[in-house]
Amino acid sequence: MIPTFRTRPSPGAFFLFLFSTLVLATIAGPAMAKGTPESFADLTEKLSPTVINIYTTQKVKAPSLPEQFMFPDMENMPEPFRRFFNFPHPQGPGNENGHPREFKRTSLGSGVIISADGYIITNNHVVKDADEINVTLASYDEYQAKIIGRDAKTDLALIKIEPKEALPFATFGNSDTLRVGDWVLAIGNPFGLEQTVTAGIVSAKGRAINSETYGNFIQTDASINPGNSGGPLFDLDGNMVGINTAIFSNGGGNIGIGFAIPINMANNVVKQLKEHGTVTRGWLGVMIQKVSPDLAKEFKLDRPIGALVGDVSPEGPAAKAGVKQGDIITHFQGKEVGQMSMLPPMVAQTPVGENAVLDIVRNGKKMKITVAIGKLDEEDDGSGTSPESAPSQELGFTVQGITPELADSLGIEQKSGVIVSNVNPGSPASEAGIRRGDIILEANRKQIKSLGDFKTVVKERKKDDSLLLLVQRDKHTRFVVLKGN
């Protein structure tokens, strides 16, 4: 047992201790409390008028039912049966005979006013199929809105109302200066509950959540639920730093992982939508992949960072500037590419024709290359800054170019060609038996040696034509037919 010795302090020592404690508390108090508000009430009162609720309506035709499943009198079907069978109320005559019935489907969302004359930012998925868009202000005034422009890749849309008077509007912040751990405030319309305010912190930055949109999302634990889509994310200075767009949840509710589009990206898109109704993006002309710890070691990097160039488009800007397969892009225009998903939005936001400086690592040596940014062909969807190709929506699967490094990491002998990286359930590819990890050797009897070869075959194929694939799986090959639409 270690002995404990206690002595009684002198009065002078006691007062010295008390004085020191008060001084330290005075100095440390503000530092510890910095950034931790006592209340969000004043900020909420200031910002809430800039946030609006969106109610969209879409006309949908329900499939007709065979006569043996029809009720004698559809108009007077008991309501419990109608709810059980999910039958909408019939619209118009003739529905009792089994003809397709038209009904209205409604959905909810949020938005934020960005100008006094009624321009509003929201999510593309909130308004894309809407026949009618209704907007309710914080003052409960209602307006019909029209779409100015939509952009599926960033999931952003710009809509417009004609207000009776000047409206309060949100100011744009700087999402690049936002730090992990900063407080943020979300205002929106979750589950139809108007003007709901939640607070949290920035949990992470630079998140990629799917292959259909550009990454670099802000992750937050501020409660975000269905209906918050399109609503703003504010910092403690009252500036808008993001547009809430998605949640990660198995049950459809908040579990503390929400995602927002950085406002710097949104601002660039919205400006183009306002001026042109469409978005023009920069193009680099490379296919990239994630730098794993093993790859970082092989390429003599201190840590896993950047985007590994797996393929270079022969006529693309990068090829003309001297970028080569196996280069690792660590910085773009002086900004660090911390992970692969950060590069595509950086390139996309760069004006066409601008000279961009790339910091790359080649064979362990650092160097700089200047690239004149080209224009992305949106129909091709081959931005050159994504490992996956265009057929995902039409055929239900995506592919990735095989590089020697990727082949080694996957333990496959094939050193070129394309490999299936994802298959959508219920898609033509899934029904044909295509699996993730399958290697495509031929498409429509043409040998596939690169991602470009595969994209060319798919682009030349007519929409209703079948696609014949020769697929290798576990050293065995077989032909697979994907039926046209």
Tell me what you see in this structure:
With 485 residues, this protein is an alpha+beta fold. It is built from twelve helices and 27 strands. A six-stranded antiparallel barrel has the order 1-2-3-6-5-4. It has a six-stranded antiparallel β-barrel with strand order 8-9-10-13-12-11. Strands 15, 16, 17, 18, 19 and 20 form a six-stranded antiparallel beta sheet that branches. The chain starts with 10 loop residues before the first helix and ends with a strand. The model is unreliable at 1-9, 13-34, 64-75, 79-94 and 379-392 (pLDDT under 50).
Topology:
Blueprint lengths: L10 H23 L7 H7 L3 E12 L16 H6 L16 E13 L5 E5 H4 L4 E5 L5 E10 L4 E5 L10 E2 L10 E6 L7 E12 L9 E4 L11 E3 L4 E9 L10 E5 H14 L5 E2 L2 E5 L2 H6 L8 E6 L4 H5 L6 E5 L2 E2 L6 H6 L6 E8 L2 E8 L1 E2 L16 H4 L1 E5 L2 H7 L7 E6 L4 H4 L7 E5 L2 E2 L3 H10 L6 E7 L2 E7 L3
